[in-house]
Design brief:
This protein is mainly β and 734 residues long. 2% of the residues lie in helices and 52% in strands.
């Protein structure tokens, strides 16, 4: 147990920060509910995700298929399981529509349009309409022609699947599954009359006898479905989540991989708040047939947007590129096209991206910083970075080379989630990465990059261990630590020589700012899944040992780390744990967000909010006011935060506030106006003001201290001299 500081220590620390405030700030960002239990993310798609990523096609992602539409036709890709060795697409192209054996004049290319879950390919007198369901695609042909005679629709189907038959029509199959093309019908109002569908090589012909045609418009309606050969576990396809938060409002974006086959992985995102999933926010960040992996997320507050970056792998050319897409922070909807972020060059590999955001507001640039590894050869890999605005425009034509040594093999770059814009006069991101020095040894290096993608602190080594140090994570800048040389970045990493978790606190110029702690020996943290983030004063750190993952909060001093909240266990069998904090999205001291893959069967994505503070509530009001003097509190009594008080019904105001230790209601001057602040202990009086703002220092010795605040006025009260007191507000520093 930590000793509770005395009120004397607390008041000595708080006397100087007391200051009058004209208007108490709203507590929107600070008055958060307690951390919710671990929750499951949306494992099953609640709706078909329809998207236009910018490649000229409309894409749809559903539970059992994905589909693409363009001027030439329609491609259907069945989902045969995340372990299927490849995709098995079917390309449907309308080749002819004949009436009485005479073809209708159709344009070579269709005009493509979409409306919610409906995609239309307009070809003059014929519309191909696709109605997108979670488990099927309904294909409709609407033919407008009053010429009499039998009608035939001819569709060319190109696929690597083998022809087969199904119970209700034509099918294609292999050892992974079957795609069925159901019996076609002529639709006349509510009546559905079956028609004949024939297969002739790679052509499908739908025949409508003249007798079935009524009026000038005819609707033909078959349905396409996927049937995997094996029982597909939907939970097994979700992995590698990342999480970021945007303020005000506390909206958390979780992005993760959704494996479609062994050669096709999509990126899906969803938006949460403190109450859970925000309905309708599920979005397809990337839903094409390309392989996208390793999603990473950051927020820019001024634009109210998230950026999701990912690595695109090409199996045909063995190359990798970095792509990104901005999402609306209020709805989770995509806000830009999917754009290649890595610059055009003959370099074969651009991989392992990470991204940092900007919490600032107002005028001036508020960009994202995207960094990745540029692989020049097997023995030469650099760290590069680019800065992008809210529309994904970049400030430079080429990426900035952050770290480059002859035959230097850099890897695993991590970017701080925030650059402290708005609270730091020279905002910048910290980039931390590995340098492989031998086949069995890696050292940690770091640099800082500013808003113009310029390197401020050049790349250099930051660890002094004669050990194999790997897999770094770097926090946002901690702006409130009582340590010279800040703001500070905390770096956590693995010491694979001793099999221990370690940390390093760096100043603004990346100089060591404290004795490096051993997180495993001192606090029992696991070796893997080391993530850390700050709220400006504290640091939350996650770690994993075997199937057990924990999260804890720490303070930082020049002599090492201070445990503030003992490690808490995450539910299930966590892996790929990711962490975010409010300062990364421009918020105040609210909950951290945690997302991870739960490897329990079936595997899924889980998330939770983590407060990481000593037990207790915010403010407690004792009803003891007299004479109608009111008091209103705001903020939360957290280290590094600010609490605020305002008096109401003050009349001709003469008075102020008393701040000290709590006292049971005592009628000091008269029975009608009891005093709630102890006059015998340390006491601070703030006079001639009706509002008060109290910044709480980032002093870890204040944890657990109890304080009381009461307003007073010397006019209009029932006690001698017209004295009045407000209710008393008690709180404990957490």
């Amino acid at each position: 147990m930590r000793a509770t500081p005395s009120c004397s220590l607390l008041l000595a620390s708080l006397t100087l920060p007391f200051a009058a405030a004209q208007h108490p700030r709203s507590a929107t960002d600070l008055d958060r509910p307690a951390a919710i239990p671990v929750a499951e993310s949306h494992r099953r798609l609640e709706r078909v995700l329809v998207d236009e990523p910018g490649d000229g096609r409309i894409w749809a992602l559903a539970e059992s298929y994905k589909a693409a539409f363009d001027a030439r036709g329609f491609e259907y890709v069945p989902f045969f399981g995340a372990d299927a060795p490849a995709n098995y697409p079917l390309r449907f192209a309308l080749r002819a529509v004949t009436i009485a054996a005479e073809p209708l004049a159709l344009p070579a290319e269709a005009s493509v349009s979409r409306g919610d879950l409906r995609v239309t390919l307009a070809r003059g007198p014929v519309d191909e309409i696709y109605l997108l369901g979670l488990d099927e695609v309904e294909q409709r042909f609407v033919v407008r022609c009053d010429r009499p005679g039998d009608l035939t629709v001819s569709i060319e189907v190109t696929t690597g699947l083998d022809p087969a038959q199904s119970n209700d029509g034509i099918a294609w199959r292999n050892d992974q599954g079957t795609v069925s093309y159901g019996a076609a019908f002529v639709v006349d109002g509510v009546r559905r009359q079956p028609i004949t569908t024939e297969r002739d090589g790679n052509l499908l012909r739908l025949h409508v006898p003249a007798a079935m045609r009524r009026g000038t418009e005819l609707v033909i309606d078959p349905v396409i479905r996927s049937h995997p050969q094996f029982n597909v576990s939907q939970g097994s396809i979700y992995s590698d989540p990342d999480i970021a938060v945007l303020h005000p409002g506390g909206r958390y974006l979780i992005a993760y991989e959704r494996a479609f086959s062994s050669r096709d992985s999509d990126i899906v995102s969803e938006l949460h708040d403190a109450q859970g999933f925000i309905p309708g926010s599920l979005a397809a960040v990337e839903a094409t047939t390309a392989v996208h992996v390793r999603p990473r997320v950051a927020a820019v507050k001024a634009a109210a947007r998230f950026l999701v970056v990912s690595q695109q792998d090409s199996s045909s050319t063995s190359t990798s590129e970095v792509w990104g897409r901005a999402l609306d922070g209020n709805t989770g909807a995509v806000a830009t096209n999917l754009i290649r972020l890595s610059d055009a060059s003959p370099i074969a590999q651009n991989h392992s991206p990470d991204v940092g955001g900007d919490p600032g507001q107002g005028l001036g640039p508020h960009p994202w910083c995207v960094a990745w590894i540029r692989q020049n050869s097997a023995t030469d890999a650099d760290v590069v970075a680019r800065v992008f605005d809210q529309h994904l425009n970049t400030v430079a034509l080429q990426a900035t080379v952050v770290a480059d040594l002859p035959n230097g093999r850099f890897a695993n770059v991590a970017v701080s989630s925030s650059n402290a814009n708005g609270t730091w006069a020279t905002p910048r991101w910290a980039l931390v990465y590995e340098l492989q020095t031998t086949a069995t040894n890696h050292d940690l290096h770091a640099a800082t990059v500013d808003l113009n993608a310029q390197v401020v602190t050049p790349s250099g080594g930051i660890d002094s261990f004669a050990a194999n140090t790997r897999f770094p994570c770097v926090s946002s800048p901690a702006t409130d630590l009582a340590i010279p040389g800040g703001p500070h970045f905390l770096v956590t990493f693995q010491d694979l020589t001793t099999q221990e978790a370690r940390a390093r606190l760096l100043g603004a110029t990346l100089r060591a700012a404290m004795s490096p702690p051993n997180l495993t020996r001192s606090f029992g943290l696991g070796l893997t899944e080391l993530q850390n983030e700050t709220d400006g004063c504290r640091f939350a750190i996650t770690s994993r040992s075997g199937s057990v993952a924990t999260v804890a909060t720490f303070g930082a001093t020049t002599s090492g780390m201070v445990l503030m909240e003992a490690p808490q266990t995450l539910a299930g069998s966590p892996a790929q744990v990711r962490l975010c904090g409010a300062v990364g999205g421009g918020g105040d001291l609210v909950d951290y967000g945690i997302a991870y893959q739960d490897q329990a069967t079936p595997a899924t994505i889980r998330w939770t909010l983590y407060e990481g503070r000593q037990p207790g509530s915010g403010f407690q009001r004792r009803i003891m006011g007299c004479g109608g003097l009111g008091i209103q509190e705001g903020g939360q009594p957290f280290l590094g935060a600010r609490i605020e008080f305002a008096l109401s019904n003050v009349n001709a105001f003469q008075g102020g506030f008393l701040v000290g230790g709590p006292l049971a209601a005592a009628p000091i001057l008269c029975a009608a106006c009891p005093l709630g602040v102890d006059p015998t202990g340390p006491l601070v009086g703030v006079v001639a003001t009706a509002s008060l703002a109290v910044p709480i220092p980032c002093d870890y010795g204040l944890l657990g201290a109890r304080l009381a605040v009461q307003g007073f006025s010397s006019t209009g009260g029932p006690c001698p001299g017209g004295l009045r007191f407000s209710d008393t507000i008690d709180f404990t520093i957490r």
